[in-house]
Design goal:
By secondary structure, the protein is an all-alpha fold. It has 2 domains: 45 residues, no CATH class; 63 residues, no CATH class. Helix content is 79%, strand content 0%. The protein contains 7 helices and no strands. The model has no long low-confidence stretch (mean pLDDT 95).
C-alpha cells in the first residue's frame, strides 16, 4: 500500500517515518487495505502495537543472525568433512541446513561431490 492510499483510506497524514512503521505493520498482516486502515485508525497509536512490532522486528533480526551462524557452521563442517573424509561432519551439516543446501554449498566451495550429493542431484533433476 502506498502512503497516498493509506492517507485516502485512513484519513491520516503520517510523516514518512511514521508511514515506514505503518507499512511494515501492514506487510505483516493478512488484512486487505481497507480492513487494515479501518483498524489502524482505531488502534494505530497503541503503545502495545508499537511494542509488539518492535519485538517482531527484533526477533526477525535475531533469526537472520542465527541462520547466518548456522550456515557458517555448516560450511565449516562441510570443509572438515571433505578434508578428513569424515561422514559424521557431513551428516551434522545436513542436519543443520538440509541436503539441498549442503550440496549447493559444496558446489559453491568447489568441493568434490560425494555419493549422497550425486544421488540428491539425480533424484531432484527428474
Amino acid at each position: 500500500m502506498t502512503q497516498k492510499e493509506f492517507m485516502e483510506r485512513a484519513g491520516v497524514v503520517p510523516t514518512s517515518e511514521e508511514f515506514d512503521y505503518i507499512h511494515a505493520v501492514y506487510m505483516n498482516t493478512s488484512m486487505d487495505k481497507d480492513e487494515f486502515c479501518k483498524d489502524f485508525k482505531k488502534h494505530g497509536g497503541s503503545s502495545v502495537l508499537r511494542d509488539v512490532h518492535a519485538r517482531a522486528v527484533n526477533f526477525e533480526l535475531q533469526d537472520k543472525q542465527k541462520q547466518a551462524l548456522i550456515e557458517e557452521v555448516a560450511e565449516f563442517l562441510i570443509g572438515k568433512a571433505c578434508a578428513y573424509e569424515d561422514t559424521d561432519f557431513y551428516k551434522q551439516a545436513v542436519k543443520l541446513v538440509g541436503q539441498k543446501k549442503v550440496t549447493r554449498m559444496k558446489l559453491e566451495m568447489d568441493l568434490p561431490l560425494w555419493k549422497e550429493d550425486k544421488e540428491y542431484i539425480k533424484e531432484n533433476l527428474k
